[in-house]
Amino acid sequence: MRLGKSRIGGRDGLWGHVLVGLSACVLTVSIVGSIAYLSFRAYDRFAYRDRVRAVVSSLQNRTDDELDEVTRQLVKKPKLARYFFPEILKSIRNRSSERQHVAAIRVSQAFLTKNRIRTALFALTNDPRETVAGAAVESLAQVQPPERAADFLGRCLKAAPSATVVDEACLGLLRLGEVGQLEASKHLSTLSPDRRLWLVGFVIEHGGEHCGPWLRMLMTDGEERIRTAANEALSALAKVEPTTARANNRAVPADE
To answer: What is the pLDDT of residue 22?
Structure first.
């Protein structure tokens, strides 16, 4: 009996060793396969990032329409945007060529929900290159909601580091309507009288439907010449509007 048990036990032990060996082989193959897959994925991600860097570095060679299309694609495709985000952020933070910087700022509008992008753009409003500073303000004007954009533009207007920044901040605030006007009213006193007088003409040229409210705001200015200019502009606007309305409402003869 003891010898029989030893024989059976030996057979069982042999099968046990075989099963352990097979399990080890399967496990080894699985591990090697996983390592190979992860290595391929890592290489694939690296290669993809490399292609993204190449695209970002070539933005300076794109037309405005092409840059707008890149921005639209990044908004539509969050997975693609995930690879572009760090490269765009790096591009607008680093002092690259002026054309490349402006192009990257334009594409950064796809990432305005990111605080790091907004912070980087606001820092660029002090850039000595006026095209770069102006592009940064233009992008900040697209921030949502409008109240947040108005806050950024108001801070730009208050700091007024350059004429271009003031121009773009005023234009952005004008386009924001009532929200922008309310923010502008807090900071107009920080502008020089000559700048506020310039603003009267700027509002007439770019204000559109917001001309009236902005001119009435400027009519409360502390400088008489600014109040006078705003009043005259508003009077001229009041005369033009009825004439335009009559022209639009003029009866069109029926076709024969």
So the answer is: 46
